[in-house]
Design a protein that fits this description.
single chain; alpha+beta; five-stranded mixed β-sheet; 13 helices
Length: 392
Amino acid sequence: MGNLICLSERPATQRIVFLKKANERLFGEFKEQKRRETALCGSEERYRSIIDNVLESPNIGTIILDTDVTNLKETEKAFKESEMLFKTIFNGAVDGILIIDPKTRKLLLGNKSMCKILDVTEEEIKTLEMKDIYREDDLPDVMDQLKNQLKQGHAHAADIPIKRKDGSIFYADIAISQITLDGKCYFLCISRDISNRKQSEEKIRHMAFHDPLTKLPNRMLFHDRLSLALTHAHRNKKMLSVLFLDLDKFKTINDTLGHHIGDELLRNVADRLHMCIREGDTIARLGGDEFLILLPGITRAGDVSNVARKIINAFKQPCIIDNHKIIITISIGIALYPNDGNNAETLLKNADESMYQAKESGRNNYKFHNHIMQSQLIEKNKNGTRSLLCGG
């Protein structure tokens, strides 16, 4: 049965009129509220709030309520279960999920995965803006790309750099759709952290372009850098040099002491070569005991001969490996651009030939492909030595 509420003594005819008007007002507002705010907004609490407002009217005497709230409670229960299911899916997703206001560019909501990725709390993420998670240089391009694609209803961006709370960068693939809530448009962003994939790709790329033993660039990467250097040298009318290096009698050391000693010796050679060149130069291992050096941006042949002598002097000190005292020497062939060739293949061929001439001349020295230049540099070095001996 219903509840009887008596506010004052009224004639019976007035009670009926007031009751009818009250119920019409009550159920009219209740239905409208249900339509606007879904079933939850038609809950028992809202229902009773409407009643309170009606009861405040001075014209109402007696109101009889006889309604069953069972359906309301079942609706409310179903809504709560639906809300719980949404939260479970939202926070249980492996990918990061964000809801962003495209006008203010503020982050309105983020799931647990997104908070973990950004290294922020669920409350902190609501204080962030897009500029806080995208690098300043990247944000305009990201926004333009997303707006253009969202005209089709959805967008996808790959390999997007995103900032964590500490400023570190990770890369993500992002899928974005446009959603409407209460008449406003928002971005629903799903981000997948691809850091592990990027690391794997980088590792594969490094393996493809580097020697696994010495970690130096391999022939393929050297050719690539040489081609770029040649293009730059041609455009700016600069010189560059290619040095072809071969360890003297390495095979004997390898066969006598074993391959593990030979491998360690090659690593030692790579370290010593690094100490003889500039930061922008390139050392590569071709394989076996052969190495290449690229010297871009040189101004004269004398710069190259200085590097060659520095390399030879670097191996005057023996290498100590597993209690073995190993003395190694190097023969070097040199080719210059543009004098000895204007393409990579020609320069490498001429540097290789010059290296063999250095070996035939007694090893542990260097040879230019241009014999006239070689003679001039030798004579210049002799004169410099004489001046030093004479105190000049």
